[in-house]
Amino acid sequence: MNMFTSPDSLNQFLHYASTTTIPAILNQRKQLLQQLPITFRRAAVLMPFDWNHGATQIWLSQRSKQLRQHSGQIAFPGGKLEDNEDSITAAFRESAEEAGLIRHQWHLAGTLSPCYLPSGFKVVPVLAWSNAHLQWRPNCAEVSEIFAIPLSIILDSNQYQQSVMRYQQRWLPVYHLHYQHWHIWGATACMLLHIAQCYEAWYRQANNISPVN
Protein backbone atom coordinates (compact mmCIF):
# COMPACT_ATOMS: atom_id res chain seq x y z
CA MET A 1 0.00 0.00 0.00
CA ASN A 2 1.52 3.32 -1.10
CA MET A 3 0.42 5.74 1.62
CA PHE A 4 2.68 8.59 0.52
CA THR A 5 3.23 9.58 -3.09
CA SER A 6 6.62 11.22 -2.59
CA PRO A 7 9.27 11.85 0.05
CA ASP A 8 7.84 15.35 0.39
CA SER A 9 4.41 14.01 1.32
CA LEU A 10 5.99 11.82 4.00
CA ASN A 11 7.92 14.82 5.30
CA GLN A 12 4.74 16.92 5.38
CA PHE A 13 2.96 14.29 7.45
CA LEU A 14 5.83 13.91 9.91
CA HIS A 15 6.04 17.67 10.32
CA TYR A 16 2.29 17.71 10.99
CA ALA A 17 2.71 14.99 13.63
CA SER A 18 5.47 16.97 15.33
CA THR A 19 3.28 20.07 15.65
CA THR A 20 0.11 18.45 17.03
CA THR A 21 -0.74 17.85 20.67
CA ILE A 22 -0.54 14.39 22.18
CA PRO A 23 -3.64 12.30 21.32
CA ALA A 24 -6.18 11.96 24.13
CA ILE A 25 -5.81 8.17 24.18
CA LEU A 26 -2.16 8.58 25.22
CA ASN A 27 -2.47 11.70 27.36
CA GLN A 28 -4.11 9.74 30.19
CA ARG A 29 -1.11 7.42 30.43
CA LYS A 30 1.26 10.39 30.40
CA GLN A 31 -0.61 12.12 33.23
CA LEU A 32 -0.68 8.96 35.36
CA LEU A 33 3.07 8.51 35.03
CA GLN A 34 3.80 12.18 35.72
CA GLN A 35 2.02 11.78 39.07
CA LEU A 36 4.44 9.09 40.24
CA PRO A 37 7.14 10.02 42.79
CA ILE A 38 9.89 9.65 40.19
CA THR A 39 12.61 12.01 39.03
CA PHE A 40 12.56 11.33 35.31
CA ARG A 41 15.86 11.23 33.45
CA ARG A 42 16.01 12.71 29.96
CA ALA A 43 16.41 10.41 26.98
CA ALA A 44 15.69 10.42 23.26
CA VAL A 45 15.05 7.90 20.51
CA LEU A 46 15.05 8.14 16.73
CA MET A 47 11.95 7.05 14.80
CA PRO A 48 13.52 6.31 11.38
CA PHE A 49 11.03 6.40 8.48
CA ASP A 50 12.16 5.02 5.13
CA TRP A 51 10.62 6.15 1.82
CA ASN A 52 11.88 3.35 -0.42
CA HIS A 53 10.37 4.11 -3.85
CA GLY A 54 6.99 4.53 -2.21
CA ALA A 55 7.23 1.39 -0.07
CA THR A 56 7.23 3.41 3.14
CA GLN A 57 8.32 1.66 6.30
CA ILE A 58 9.81 2.29 9.71
CA TRP A 59 12.88 0.62 11.19
CA LEU A 60 13.05 -0.89 14.66
CA SER A 61 15.56 -3.02 16.51
CA GLN A 62 15.54 -5.83 19.01
CA ARG A 63 17.69 -4.94 21.99
CA SER A 64 20.40 -7.39 22.98
CA LYS A 65 19.40 -9.86 25.67
CA GLN A 66 22.68 -9.03 27.42
CA LEU A 67 21.58 -5.49 28.31
CA ARG A 68 20.54 -4.72 31.87
CA GLN A 69 17.50 -2.60 30.97
CA HIS A 70 14.72 -3.53 28.51
CA SER A 71 16.76 -6.51 27.28
CA GLY A 72 15.29 -8.36 24.30
CA GLN A 73 12.57 -5.77 23.75
CA ILE A 74 11.70 -4.10 20.47
CA ALA A 75 12.74 -0.46 20.51
CA PHE A 76 13.97 2.51 18.55
CA PRO A 77 17.66 3.41 18.74
CA GLY A 78 18.33 5.91 21.48
CA GLY A 79 19.40 6.47 25.04
CA LYS A 80 20.13 8.96 27.80
CA LEU A 81 21.18 12.51 27.01
CA GLU A 82 24.74 13.43 27.81
CA ASP A 83 25.59 16.67 29.62
CA ASN A 84 24.69 19.76 27.58
CA GLU A 85 23.16 17.59 24.83
CA ASP A 86 19.76 18.12 23.21
CA SER A 87 17.30 15.39 22.25
CA ILE A 88 17.97 15.55 18.51
CA THR A 89 21.74 15.30 18.91
CA ALA A 90 21.36 12.41 21.36
CA ALA A 91 18.97 10.48 19.11
CA PHE A 92 21.28 10.65 16.10
CA ARG A 93 24.40 9.93 18.19
CA GLU A 94 22.84 6.85 19.78
CA SER A 95 21.53 5.66 16.40
CA ALA A 96 25.01 5.87 14.93
CA GLU A 97 26.46 3.96 17.89
CA GLU A 98 23.77 1.26 18.00
CA ALA A 99 22.84 0.78 14.36
CA GLY A 100 25.55 2.44 12.27
CA LEU A 101 23.25 5.20 11.05
CA ILE A 102 24.87 7.65 8.64
CA ARG A 103 23.68 11.13 9.63
CA HIS A 104 23.78 12.82 6.22
CA GLN A 105 21.34 10.24 4.81
CA TRP A 106 18.56 11.44 7.11
CA HIS A 107 16.22 14.43 7.09
CA LEU A 108 14.97 15.78 10.41
CA ALA A 109 11.19 16.32 10.51
CA GLY A 110 10.60 17.25 14.16
CA THR A 111 9.86 15.69 17.54
CA LEU A 112 6.84 14.24 19.34
CA SER A 113 5.68 15.01 22.86
CA PRO A 114 7.80 13.22 25.48
CA CYS A 115 6.89 9.66 26.38
CA TYR A 116 7.18 8.80 30.09
CA LEU A 117 8.40 5.35 31.14
CA PRO A 118 7.76 3.60 34.48
CA SER A 119 11.51 2.85 34.52
CA GLY A 120 12.10 6.57 35.12
CA PHE A 121 12.83 8.03 31.71
CA LYS A 122 11.27 10.96 29.88
CA VAL A 123 11.88 10.06 26.24
CA VAL A 124 11.61 12.48 23.31
CA PRO A 125 10.89 10.69 20.00
CA VAL A 126 12.79 12.35 17.15
CA LEU A 127 11.19 11.99 13.69
CA ALA A 128 13.47 11.55 10.68
CA TRP A 129 13.13 10.10 7.21
CA SER A 130 15.40 8.91 4.43
CA ASN A 131 15.11 7.91 0.79
CA ALA A 132 18.72 6.74 0.55
CA HIS A 133 19.92 3.18 0.08
CA LEU A 134 20.27 2.22 3.74
CA GLN A 135 22.81 -0.24 5.05
CA TRP A 136 22.59 -0.83 8.79
CA ARG A 137 25.61 -1.89 10.83
CA PRO A 138 24.21 -3.01 14.20
CA ASN A 139 26.39 -3.02 17.29
CA CYS A 140 25.92 -6.62 18.46
CA ALA A 141 26.60 -5.63 22.07
CA GLU A 142 23.42 -3.53 22.04
CA VAL A 143 21.29 -4.74 19.12
CA SER A 144 20.32 -8.29 18.14
CA GLU A 145 18.46 -7.47 14.93
CA ILE A 146 17.19 -4.54 12.86
CA PHE A 147 13.98 -4.93 10.88
CA ALA A 148 11.31 -2.85 9.12
CA ILE A 149 7.52 -2.74 9.37
CA PRO A 150 5.36 -1.26 6.57
CA LEU A 151 3.61 1.99 7.44
CA SER A 152 0.35 0.43 6.26
CA ILE A 153 0.54 -1.61 9.49
CA ILE A 154 1.96 1.07 11.77
CA LEU A 155 -0.53 3.79 10.79
CA ASP A 156 -3.64 1.62 11.26
CA SER A 157 -4.94 2.19 14.80
CA ASN A 158 -6.97 -1.01 14.56
CA GLN A 159 -3.73 -2.99 14.64
CA TYR A 160 -3.09 -2.01 18.28
CA GLN A 161 -4.38 -3.73 21.41
CA GLN A 162 -4.55 -2.43 24.96
CA SER A 163 -4.04 -4.13 28.30
CA VAL A 164 -3.46 -2.72 31.79
CA MET A 165 -0.58 -3.04 34.24
CA ARG A 166 -0.62 -2.42 37.99
CA TYR A 167 2.25 -0.11 38.95
CA GLN A 168 2.67 1.75 42.26
CA GLN A 169 -1.04 1.61 43.12
CA ARG A 170 -2.11 2.77 39.67
CA TRP A 171 -3.48 0.99 36.63
CA LEU A 172 -1.48 1.99 33.59
CA PRO A 173 -2.64 1.34 30.02
CA VAL A 174 -0.17 -0.76 28.02
CA TYR A 175 -0.32 -0.89 24.23
CA HIS A 176 0.68 -3.78 21.98
CA LEU A 177 1.32 -4.30 18.27
CA HIS A 178 1.98 -7.67 16.64
CA TYR A 179 3.70 -8.01 13.28
CA GLN A 180 4.87 -11.37 11.98
CA HIS A 181 6.69 -12.91 14.97
CA TRP A 182 7.44 -9.54 16.59
CA HIS A 183 5.62 -8.31 19.69
CA ILE A 184 6.01 -4.56 20.15
CA TRP A 185 4.70 -3.14 23.39
CA GLY A 186 5.22 -0.51 26.06
CA ALA A 187 6.78 2.83 25.19
CA THR A 188 7.66 1.80 21.62
CA ALA A 189 4.05 0.84 20.90
CA CYS A 190 2.90 4.12 22.49
CA MET A 191 5.10 6.12 20.13
CA LEU A 192 3.84 4.18 17.13
CA LEU A 193 0.22 4.59 18.22
CA HIS A 194 0.87 8.32 18.61
CA ILE A 195 1.94 8.41 14.95
CA ALA A 196 -1.09 6.34 13.91
CA GLN A 197 -3.47 8.71 15.69
CA CYS A 198 -1.79 11.69 14.04
CA TYR A 199 -2.10 10.03 10.63
CA GLU A 200 -5.84 9.55 11.06
CA ALA A 201 -6.28 13.23 11.92
CA TRP A 202 -3.99 14.32 9.07
CA TYR A 203 -5.82 12.12 6.56
CA ARG A 204 -9.23 13.45 7.62
CA GLN A 205 -7.97 17.02 7.38
CA ALA A 206 -6.39 16.46 3.96
CA ASN A 207 -9.57 14.87 2.60
CA ASN A 208 -12.12 17.10 4.41
CA ILE A 209 -13.55 14.15 6.34
CA SER A 210 -15.40 14.92 9.58
CA PRO A 211 -14.26 12.90 12.62
CA VAL A 212 -16.56 10.10 13.81
CA ASN A 213 -18.07 10.84 17.21
Question: What is the compact description of this entry?
Answer:
The chain is of the alpha+beta class. It is built from 5 helices and 11 strands.
Notes on the structure:
- This protein has 213 residues and is an alpha+beta fold.
- It has one domain (7-206): Nucleoside Triphosphate Pyrophosphohydrolase (Alpha-Beta Complex).
- Helix content is 29%, strand content 34%.
- It is built from 5 helices and 11 strands.
- It has helices at residues 7-19, 24-34, 87-99, 151-154, 187-206, and strands at 41-52, 55-63, 74-75, 78-80, 107-111, 115-116, 121-130, 143-150, 160-167, 170-179, 182-185.
- Strands 1, 2, 3, 4, 5, 6, 7 and 8 form an 8-stranded mixed β-sheet that branches. A 3-stranded antiparallel β-sheet has the order 9-10-11, with helices on one face.
- Strand 6 (115-116) and strand 7 form a beta hairpin.
- Helix 1 crosses helix 5 (187-206).
- The chain is globular.
Q: What is the topological layout?
A:
Elements: H1 7-19, H2 24-34, E1 41-52, E2 55-63, E3 74-75, E4 78-80, H3 87-99, E5 107-111, E6 115-116, E7 121-130, E8 143-150, H4 151-154, E9 160-167, E10 170-179, E11 182-185, H5 187-206
Parallel strand pairs: 1-7
Antiparallel strand pairs: 1-2, 1-4, 2-3, 2-8, 5-7, 6-7, 9-10, 10-11
Distance between the termini: 27 Å
Provide the domain count: 1
Order of helices and strands: HHEEEEHEEEEHEEEH
- Summarize the main sheet: 8 strands, mixed
